[in-house]
Write a structure and sequence with these properties.
nine-stranded mixed β-sheet; 489 residues; Rossmann fold; Dihydrodipicolinate Reductase, domain 2
């Protein structure tokens, strides 16, 4: 069984930062894959734009290498690659001075196709690019602008960025991208909840004991030193990725899958998050920073050593959150994310309440609570942990097993990368999987008091050894409630 591929109308796709890391690793490979899948119609064009002096030929060579490096060899078709490269052109532009925007306008010409302006650049350039696009008459009614996180580093700065983009583009033209929302499993969370009668009736405080959301990485700073030390894990991961996942778990059923219907319900969750004030922060949040240890089979430096300076920036955060609604009152949401942890894994765990009484006797063993585990990466899939009788004679002995649906095993089709799906949604003008302005700002309204509380309480980042699951305080955060972090298996 294969998915039906629906071609889209021709479009012009302009990548600001076209020679940068994001373009190389994600955007160009994603666009190539969508062409190979048959979604492009003629005369779709892809235009790279950045300060680098480069010819069309050199940009095509850059793109060819990007695809060779970041697309599986089995997915590279020489004829499709040649066809893809012919779509590419390049225009040198300087966002701050405005140089090159006239050439970009000439390159696009009088095309009536939808225009996508993808800003794969630092947020400091968002205002300049939007202003120059407007100044040079490049913004049409069918134009869209795509911006990557971080959307600010506080509520005030997020509002400033949103104002800068909003003075040129209407809200329906602005696509604030969070690649986590493009993952197959994240969308399957919606199908799981609202397409199955067995789950939604149990999706509330009467049946759910608690929820865990983990986004763990084994990597360290890599090439993000200057950005990460100014941001830290709370701004980098919790404000966007993790809160978006929390919204999808906790939101009420939308009236439809219309973009605003879904985002209205997510916004209600963000507004219902119980604020973490100055006295609560030390009890409900943990900050950590990795020290030297072992990761991926080798010795690694600590964060400060990699940075080359002493710093209190957190590389790990754990939070006990609460959604103050009738559906979720009293149900804790345990959130954690960090770098240089024991395993690379992103997952959502819904732990249901245990049975009220075991009728099986002590010899049967403990009756563990049911768990629904939604794995985002790696090996995307869903597992439902249930209790069964251990096969064989010897009386009733219980054990927990998983009903496993790993997508790679269940479906023979290739699973598109998140950027592939999101890029095509931009082209179609579908904003369902993108953040609305009020969502972004509501998230910052919850994050800002935590940052202020950390500063007010001088809540230092606790050290943890690289290759472990973070500071011991993160374990204590959940275990003092009689619960335990889920271990992947």
């Amino acid at each position: 069984m294969t998915s039906q591929i629906i071609p889209v109308d021709p479009f012009d796709f302009v990548v600001f930062g076209g020679t940068g890391d994001l373009s190389e690793r994600k955007l160009l490979p994603a666009l190539y894959q969508r062409q190979k899948a048959g979604q492009f119609c003629e005369p779709t064009r892809i235009i790279g734009a950045s300060r680098s002096k480069m010819s069309d030929k050199q940009f095509r060579e850059f793109a060819s290498k990007a695809i060779a490096d970041h697309v599986s060899a089995k997915d590279v078709d020489e004829k499709e690659l040649e066809k893809f490269l012919k779509r590419l052109s390049y225009v040198p532009v300087d966002a701050m001075s405005g140089d090159g925007f006239d050439k970009l306008k000439a390159q696009i010409g009088d095309s009536k196709a939808a225009r996508v302006f993808y800003l794969a650049v630092a947020p400091a350039l968002f205002d300049d690019i939007a202003t120059n696009l407007d100044k040079h008459g490049l913004v049409t009614s069918d134009a869209r602008i795509v911006v990557e996180k971080p959307i600010g580093r506080s509520l005030a700065s997020a509002q400033e960025l949103n104002d800068a983009i909003g003075k040129v583009f209407d809200e329906h033209q602005i696509f604030r991208i969070d690649h986590y929302l493009g993952k197959e499993t994240v969308q399957n969370l919606m199908a799981l909840r609202f397409g199955n009668a067995m789950f939604e009736p149990l999706w509330n405080s009467a049946h759910v004991d608690h929820v865990q959301i983990t986004v763990a990485e084994t990597v360290g700073l890599e090439d993000r030193v200057s950005y990460y030390d100014k941001a830290g894990a709370l701004r980098d991961m919790v404000q966007n990725h993790i809160l978006q996942l929390l919204c999808l778990v906790a939101m009420e059923p939308p009236a439809s899958l219309d973009a605003d219907a879904v985002r209205d319900e997510k916004l209600k969750v963000l507004r219902a998050l119980k604020r973490v004030n100055g006295t609560e922060a030390p009890k409900t949040t943990v900050r950590g920073q990795y020290k030297a240890g072992a990761s991926s089979g080798g010795a690694v430096k600590g964060y400060a050593e990699e940075l080359g300076a002493a710093t209190d920036t957190e590389t790990f955060v754990a939070i006990k959150a609460e959604v103050a609604t009738w559906r979720w009152a009293g149900v804790p949401f345990y959130l954690r994310t960090g770098k240089r942890l024991a395993e690379r894994v992103s997952e959502i765990v819904i732990e249901f309440k245990p049975v009220p009484l075991s009728i099986f006797g002590d010899h049967a063993g403990p009756v563990s609570a049911n768990q629904l585990v939604i794995r985002l990466q790696p090996n995307e899939g869903v597992k439902l942990f249930v209790m069964i009788k251990d096969p064989g004679p010897g009386g009733m002995r219980l054990r927990q097993v998983s009903l496993d649906m790993t997508f790679a095993e269940a479906f023979s089709v290739r699973n598109p990368d998140a950027y592939e799906r999101l890029i095509m949604d931009v082209v179609r003008g579908n904003q369902t999987l993108f953040m609305r302005r009020d969502e972004v700002e509501a998230a910052w309204r919850w994050i800002d008091p935590i940052l202020a509380s950390w500063e007010e309480n001088r809540q230092a980042a606790q050290g943890y050894t690289a290759g472990t699951w973070g500071p011991s305080a993160a374990i204590a955060l959940i275990e003092r409630d009689g619960r335990t972090w889920h271990e992947s298996n």
